[in-house]
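task queued by scheduler; priority normal; single chain, no ligands, no partner chains; default sampling; output format set to structure tokens
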Amino acid sequence: MVDFIIDVLGDLVFEGTKAGAKKIHKSAKLRKNIAKAAEIIENGGLAAFPTETVYGLGADAFNSRAVERIYAAKGRPSDNPLILHVASIEQFLELVELPPEYALALAKAYWPGPLTLIAKKKYHLPEWAGGHPQKSTATVGVRIPNHPIALALIKAVGRPIAAPSANKSGRPSPTSAAHVAEDFSAEGEIDIVLDGAISDVGLESTVVDVTGDFPIILRPGAITAEMIEQTTGLKPKEAAATDAPRSPGIKYKHYAPIAQMIILKGEPDNIAAYILKECEARAEQKVGAYITARTEDFLPVKPPNMKLIILSDNCETIAQNLFGHLRQFDKSDVSVIFAEAVSYTGIGTAIMDRMLKAAEGNVIYV
């Protein structure tokens, strides 16, 4: 049923480049389609929409049937919580008990932006709010997205939108409307896709638990530990393992391409030699190589069965392209992907978090 999604995209998306998406936010066409998406959400439907991180799959956060549709459409485990998207700090404070001062400092510094705060939710909220309607949670994750279409949609709905990434669970997250269409091709899975071009950040938000005296990073992202410490004066703590995850992106295999993925750590010449050896051993298969240009220099020839994608020297660019590149490998029918590790500095920590989850922790030192 791919044609259904193609028709939806053709009729309802907003064309333009990433920069253009911001320039046309007051156009009549955009207002009309945001209003249509808002009406769909208000009536219990699902709307995929762009944010600065990845595309979200949104529903009315307090409509239990709509939230169940999110879990069903994605194939999402019921104990994997959702993030609620709001348009203001005031809306955030309506959902949660008064958080510590450092939490408010983070909100003021990085909202709108790629930061989710996990806080104790107010007693009057449904026990399931922020998760599956058949579960109960004491905390809720909230953020304000930094994208004009996302903010306009939230304001048009007039209440929080629950929105995990708009992909099938376990798959690479979507950073374009086309990625959403790839995963949701069956009629009736979702109701509308709003196209805001390619996401700026490319990785899901940093998730920080602010229920205690110190911030705890549950999921790394573009807002780094160094930035959090600089803003709050508090060194973030590491998350402890828990059976009941308080944040998405923790407990389950995530971000994975179809092919097996293996992380390679070592010097560029050793990485190149290892991949060449694997290409020889897998002569009847296509092998994915996700490596830096420096490592490519050590490849005397490119084997005919190699699918090569170059990792940028810039970590922000790697983050923007990571999920799209993994989907490119999928389309190339590679049997395995060998991905070169990046440095654990700045957003590199978040990149390695996503790579390791995609590879199910499979690392080879060469």
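post-processing summary
- The chain has two domains: 2-238, 260-365.
- Confidence is low (pLDDT under 50) at residues 1-25.
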